[in-house]
Amino acid sequence: MPHKFVSYSQRDTVKIAEKAAAGIRRGDVIGLFGELGAGKTCFVRGFAKAFGVTETVNSPSFAIVNVYKGKTPVYHMDFYRIDNPDEIRAVGCEDYFYGDGVCLVEWAEKAENIMPPGRKEIHIKITGVSEREIVMKGFDFR
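Below the sequence we write its predicted structure tokens.
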């Protein structure tokens, strides 16, 4: 069952991400969907913060993958500049999907055929200047 949240600011998005991170375990893969500027990287910042990451979280648009050390490794991927799944394989992203950390993948729609089954999804939609609708699939909130 999808869970729906409304964020009115970047601060709200970070708090929602921290809440979502509470139920995540090593080996989980999370696809992030949303147009440019929707807040995917902001969401990853809050998520990484919940895992004890203290360094600055930036979009890995040019590097493709950023690895952050926390209580659990956080693998942050951005496939915005990827044109086909073979490029994702060439970078070795599949190794991260089955690694010992948590994977967060921006522009996950570009890798849907190679991402593991059972992945979780976050869909962020711009609904106002600072307002976002965040729909999470596969998360268990208790």
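The chain has one domain: 3-137.
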